[in-house]
């Protein structure tokens, strides 16, 4: 029986990965400090004998060393996420993301564990080549802009993982996730789809930042997990970086209109300047679209869930009286 350690295992994506692995008959240990994760995303105590939740900090090197030593695979998802949270506390973002990843990778390298490191489309920064591919150069804004602290910390994660692979043989793969969405995702930290859905169902204005013409690509969490499972299973993915996302893009204002239509809401759209929503001089990324050619070729990755299906799934989950991830 494969035993997988999932850091951030009680988060939105971590909870879905946990359920998938348990459904396959595997054993899972989830490490989470529950700062943005929730116990509601994982099995309750005693519900599944193949699951254990450890409440702790990924920067706790002694704890991480113990957990990594006792597993076969490490899926490192723990990170400080959400644009609002990042902008409010860039220092903690750097500390949690960089120090946490260093803690996990040091243990994984020490014990020779198969490791998957979750990165983000944010690392493409202000890149203008669309769609973005893994071999493209990346370009951030000024360090004076707090939003880039998250991207910078995740680039460090990538460089460190790949350096350990090259110099010490760590069987690591980096995955850049593009706006993973689905049921149980929280709106607390700026995630746009659950925010729009909750506003629409409450009859509140849907707050669109800027003029709404900026585009994003959204990938259903189930499709994302399909890609992650293939990465872990395939030796040829070791030492590589993969974009995992859905190349279909939509303007944010059109996303708001679609949510209003699918919920049957009378909510208006309210445009909020970026300087008001975040801070003065905020730098927005106009388009973010993944080139998934490498993932298609190496992994057979092909996201099939349409945005309408995702939205209907999220709407149904928000309408139902159930807890969501924080």
Tell me what the structure shows.
The protein has 326 residues and is α/β, with parallel strands linked by helices. The protein has a domain at 3-178 and 221-244 and 290-303: Rossmann fold (3-Layer(aba) Sandwich). 40% of the residues lie in helices and 17% in strands. The protein contains eleven helices and 13 strands. The chain has helices at 12-23, 61-69, 83-88, 90-111, 148-168, 192-201, 221-233, 252-263, 274-277, 293-299, 307-319, and strands at residues 3-7, 27-32, 51-55, 73-76, 114-120, 172-177, 180-181, 206-209, 215-217, 219-220, 241-244, 249-251, 269-272. The protein has a seven-stranded parallel sheet with strand order 3-2-1-4-5-6-11, with helices on both faces. Strands 7-10 form a two-stranded parallel ribbon. Strands 8-13 form a two-stranded parallel ribbon. The two termini are 31 Å apart. The mean pLDDT is 92.
Summary, kept brief:
The protein has helices spanning 12-23, 61-69, 83-88, 90-111, 148-168, 192-201, 221-233, 252-263, 274-277, 293-299, 307-319, and strands spanning 3-7, 27-32, 51-55, 73-76, 114-120, 172-177, 180-181, 206-209, 215-217, 219-220, 241-244, 249-251, 269-272. It is of the alpha/beta class.
């Amino acid at each position: 029986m494969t035993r997988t350690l999932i850091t951030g295992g009680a988060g939105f994506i971590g909870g879905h990965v946990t359920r998938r692995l348990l459904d396959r008959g595997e054993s899972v240990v989830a490490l989470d400090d529950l700062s943005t994760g929730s116990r509601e995303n994982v099995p309750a105590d005693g519900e599944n004998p193949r699951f254990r939740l450890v409440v702790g900090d990924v920067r706790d090197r002694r704890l991480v060393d113990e957990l990594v030593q006792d597993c076969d695979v490490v899926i490192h998802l723990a990170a400080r996420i959400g644009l609002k949270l990042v902008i409010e506390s860039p220092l903690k973002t750097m500390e949690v993301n960089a120090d946490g990843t260093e803690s996990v990778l040091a243990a994984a390298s020490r014990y020779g564990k198969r490791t998957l490191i979750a990165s983000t489309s944010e690392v493409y920064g202000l890149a203008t080549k669309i769609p973005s591919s893994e071999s493209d150069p990346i370009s951030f804004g000024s360090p004076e802009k707090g939003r880039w602290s998250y991207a910078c910390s995740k680039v460090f994660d990538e460089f460190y993982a790949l350096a350990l692979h090259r110099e010490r043989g760590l069987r690591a793969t980096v995955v850049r996730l593009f706006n993973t969405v689905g049921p149980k995702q929280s709106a607390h930290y700026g995630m746009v789809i659950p925010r729009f859905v909750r506003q629409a169902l409450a009859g509140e204005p849907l707050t669109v930042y800027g003029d709404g013409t900026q585009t994003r690509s959204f990938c259903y969490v189930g499709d994302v997990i399909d890609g992650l499972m293939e990465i872990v299973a395939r030796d040829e993915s070791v030492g590589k970086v993969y974009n995992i996302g859905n190349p279909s893009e939509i303007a944010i204002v059109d996303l708001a209109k679609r949510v209003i239509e699918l919920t049957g809401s009378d909510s208006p759209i309210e445009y909020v300047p970026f300087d008001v929503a975040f801070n003065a001089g905020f730098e927005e990324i106009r388009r973010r679209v993944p080139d998934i050619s490498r993932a298609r070729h190496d992994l057979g990755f092909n996201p099939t869930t349409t945005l309408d299906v995702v939205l209907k799934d999220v709407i149904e989950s928000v309408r139902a009286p159930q807890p969501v991830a924080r």
